[in-house]
Amino acid sequence: MEEKIPANIMHDEIGTKKPCSSCKWQIADPTNPLRGQCTVNRNAMGGVWKRWIGNVSDMTCGKHEEGKLSFREHV
Amino acid sequence: MATVAESVNYKGKVINFPLANQQENEVADDMLHENLARPTTERTKRLKARCRWKHASAGEFIDSEVRAGIERMRFITEAHKASEGQPEVIRRALGLANILNKSTLVLQQDEFIIGYHAEDPEMFPLYPELSYMAVQDYLMSDYSPQPKEEAEAINQYWKRFSMQSKGEGYFSKEDLTRMYQVSTMEAPGFATGYNSITPPYETILQDGLLKRIEMAKAKIEHAQKEMEKIPWNATEGLEWISKIDVWKAMIIADEAVINWAQRHARLAKIIAESFETDPARREELLEIADISHRVPAEPCKGLKDAFQAKWYTYLLCHAIDRYASGYAHKEDELLEPYYNISVEQKTFQPMTYTDVVEMVEMERLKISEHGAGKSRAYREIFPGSNDLFILTVGGTKPGYVDACSDMTDAILEGARNIRTTEPSIVFRWHPSGRVKTKQHVFECIRDGLGYPSIKHDIIGTEQMKYYSQFSKNKNGVTDDEAHYWALVLCMSPGVCGRRKTQKTRSEGGGSIFPAKMMEIVLADGFDWSYSAMQLGPHTGEPTEFKTFEQLWEAFRTQYAYAVSTVIRAKDVCRYFEGKYLQMPFVSSIDDGAMELGRDAVELSEQPNGWHNPITTIVAANSMVAIKKLIYDEKKYTMQQLVTALRANWEGHEAMRLDFQNAPKWGNDDDYADSIIKDFYEDIIGGEMAKITNYSGGPVKPVGQAVGLYMEIGSRTGPTPDGRFGGDAGDDGGISPYMGTDKKGPTAVLRSVAKVQKNQKANLLNQRLSVPIMRSIHGFSIWKSYMDAWEQLNIDHVQFNVVSTAEMKAAQQEPEKHQDLIVRVSGFSARFVDIPTYGQNTIIARNEQAFGANDLEYLNTQL
Amino acid sequence: MSTCNDCTYFFPVPENAGDFEPGKGDCVSEKEDAKGKYWLSRPTTNASISCPTYNKSK
């Protein structure tokens, strides 16, 4: 049952001007600093529902915002 | 005004709950914790006020001054380059010696216990010989060591020599990618550098290093004579070569440690003579100088010696030679002989009991300033604290004789007075334990410290005996030695003492995550919600599971794959540690390594295998809901469930409520509990026990969530227990899911007591009513609860005693609540240093009151 | 050019110390930040070229 992550969340875009690496909602992967995690998705109860980012330089989505989250705002 | 608990009708009487301390009536509920600290002296008050906490949260350091130092990585690299061609164990000793000889020493105003592990009190060291990714993460952060170019070059140099490069070669890219995500499996130690150890403090306090050096020299002399025997016998003679190298390395390391301590002595003396103007402090600095001149070279003669020698050993084993989390030792029994000399007999370093309490407070503040150069994953999972530091007190001596002493009481009293998040304390509970000490335990818990957590003394002691039978060299612990144990990290007992202790994390530690496994079992092993990749074996299309047993077996397959993979990773790491990451200093203070001429990392005498399933209850509650609603009642189909989960229950709210309202763990519900008992004993424990680890013994589960229940929750999609995607997992190891234990505290105990087989330890998190615990009946109720817990043969329990009002007030005005401490899971944290997500999970835990039914079950005498 | 030997913060390692080497000394400096006062000790030699914290002995 190989499936694709929903495309409206994030997608590959080689050479994007809005890479996940510069997005406020992106935090580092727990192990490999070249990968990341997206924290933009918040569930109804305020929980942070993360998505893994396989390549922080060449992925983006429509929710890109420059900046950095405070530790209080993610997990 | 403080809230007072409502009266209860119990055994024909109306029981009222006035506060034990009437003055607290004037303290508002939402400011209670800010009124509980009472440092014993002005000195510890000052030390706490200026404490350089190094709390991390969500991967970041809270204090902007905190950063990585470069000295350790610079000096170990310099030594590694200079020692090329020498035996690896000698290179390790020379590396340590170069760090100790050249590093900058730190001595701060007011401190009595001295020594630090980096070149500035705001810094912590890094370990490029362990994980190149962990160091690279620091290089890309705001905490990068400086000069950054030098640090980058060092990391590049070490990349090919690092544990990570060595370990990675024996795993597929697919398995590495799965483990590195930390969603079904924790990343391997070779990729993170995370580690734990139980140092044999006893030898250094009792013998001193000069004696250990003489022992190693005698061993070398003996070995050389054996090699010179005529006629030459290569089958025996050649074995001496590696042993001689190990003993030589011990000598190099120990001599460097003595010189390093004596450099501290010189520094204290120079400050006294050239900088300090206060005559009293000048005298104290000269006393500090005298102590560091003698220890750890010589045996400790008094309690001040013991605190200092212990601290130096801690720094070496946990931060300088290599990184290791934890603070594993049986502190009260270790220090008791020196307490008796200094306090009872007053024959050396005479002190009062109050002086000892002050020493305890100062030691706690040293730990509170200790920064850990750990990888990002571990800066995420202990939010609101520096690291995991857990010491153990109480318990029994051989014959189950009470081991509590006045030293135990001083440790507990100092902890209650100074109120620091760390180190955490474990109290080993046994019926023979004296009530006076249990009262101190209660007072810490009542004041909301979250520690001591409580471990069942008999379960832990018998566990040491059980593991002993698997010893590879038939030298596991004796029945008497089995009584001398401490928690290695949050939850797992491990022996202490002069030999046989845990030296590296391959023996125990590391996690797997059943909640995420449950999610992917419902997608044929595919992770649709986080990584969009196949995260485990193909276990079948869930919509085609005709029976509950098919689902059960699919889960078993996912679990068995994950647990074998992660434990293989630990043992592969251990293999390379034994060859390239020897610890000559630790070897020198381990009687086994000294006797056998084997490095302490490579030698294993007492097996103690464990691994940590975290978020088990989310998976187990999911199993219950599926069985009831799909396979028993047939109200829904698996297809409907999969569809609803993919939509994160959106458009399926009535269905979600059915799954959320299905029977849940922790309510003494036979339907739920019988399934969950099997889940723990058959799969979680049963599959793990089939494994044999490096030390030759089985591996058993130690459920302990730490902050991983938040991290894994945020990486886990919706689950059939009614949870939404991103919601936290369960916060213990066997705790009910937050807010779902609705039948009172004794129902929780009855549920938990049902799981007994194939477990090593399981964390039980409970939140107790503040007004009841602070009432005149607080101790009686808690004591009767603890006695019942003990009789039910439950392994562990820990408590939050903190009000929702105070936590919510702290969310609004964090700066006013710096002393608000909460128990997260296995460790305590400053509440305001936890991300909002995590704070909310603690607020959501049920605050258990004690109704008449509970009191009757406990037979509380009021 | 001034050397550590002429600095008030230079303290020679005593001959009976385990790490004694001719000319070796401890550079001890006092620091203070918002959290308090502390002292640092770095190994050096009397012939080392002085650093920015050099303070000439009288």
Protein topology:
The complex is a heterotrimer of chains A (75), B (862) and C (58).
Chain A: E1 11-12, E2 26-28, E3 36-38, E4 51-53, E5 59-60
Antiparallel strand pairs in A: 1-5, 2-3, 3-4
Chain B: E1 5-10, E2 13-17, H1 42-49, E3 56-57, E4 60-61, E5 67-68, H2 71-82, H3 88-102, E6 105-108, E7 123-124, H4 132-139, H5 148-159, H6 163-168, H7 173-180, H8 189-192, H9 201-206, H10 209-227, H11 234-237, H12 239-274, H13 279-294, H14 303-320, H15 331-345, H16 353-368, H17 376-380, E8 390-394, E9 396-397, E10 401-402, H18 406-418, E11 424-429, H19 435-446, E12 453-456, H20 457-468, E13 485-487, E14 493-495, E15 508-512, H21 514-521, E16 526-527, E17 533-534, H22 548-580, H23 584-588, H24 591-596, E18 609-613, H25 616-632, H26 638-646, H27 653-660, H28 670-689, E19 699-703, H29 708-714, H30 745-752, E20 761-762, E21 765-768, H31 770-773, H32 778-791, E22 796-800, H33 804-812, E23 821-823, E24 828-830, H34 836-843, E25 847-848, H35 852-858
Parallel strand pairs in B: 5-7, 8-11, 11-12, 15-18, 18-19, 19-20, 21-22, 21-25
Antiparallel strand pairs in B: 1-2, 3-4, 9-10, 12-22, 13-14, 16-17, 23-24
Chain C: E1 10-12, E2 24-33, E3 36-45
Antiparallel strand pairs in C: 1-2, 2-3
What is the residue-mean pLDDT of chain C, rounded to a whole number? Answer: 94
Low-confidence segments of chain C, ≥5 residues, pLDDT <50?
A: none
Instruction: Provide the succession of SSEs of chain C.
Output: EEE
Mean pLDDT level of chain A? 88
Helix fraction of chain A, binned, reads under 10%
* Most extensive interface: A-B, 33 and 49 residues
Shape of chain C: flat
**Count of discrete alpha- or pi-helical segments spanning 4 or more residues of chain C:** 0
Question: What's the short story on this structure?
Answer:
Chain A has strands spanning about 10, 25-30, 35-40, 50-55, 60.
Structure characterization notes:
The complex is a heterotrimer of chains A (75), B (862) and C (58). Chain A has 75 residues and is mostly beta strands. Chain A has a domain at 21-69: Irregular (High-Potential Iron-Sulfur Protein, Chain A), CATH 4.10.490. Chain A is built from no helices and five strands. In chain A, the strands form two sheets. Chain A has a three-stranded antiparallel β-sheet with strand order 2-3-4, with no helix packed on it. In chain A, a hairpin with a 7-residue loop joins strand 2 (26-28) and strand 3 (36-38). The radius of gyration of chain A is 12 Å and the shape is globular. Among the domains of chain B are: 67-161, no CATH class; 208-298; 508-802, Anaerobic Ribonucleotide-triphosphate Reductase Large Chain (Alpha-Beta Barrel). Chain B is 47% helix and 10% strand. The longest helix of chain B is centred in the first third of the chain and has 36 residues, at 239-274. The model of chain B has no long low-confidence stretch (mean pLDDT 97). Chain C has one domain. Chain C is 0% helix and 40% strand. Chain C contains no helices and three strands. Chain C starts with 9 loop residues before the first strand and ends in a 13-residue tail after the last strand. The A-B interface holds A 1-5, 27-33, 35, 37, 39, 41-52, 54, 71-75 and B 57-60, 62, 133, 136-137, 140, 179-183, 187, 191-192, 375-377, 380, 383, 523-524, 526, 528-532, 534, 541, 648, 710-711, 713-715, 717, 724-728, 835-838, 840.
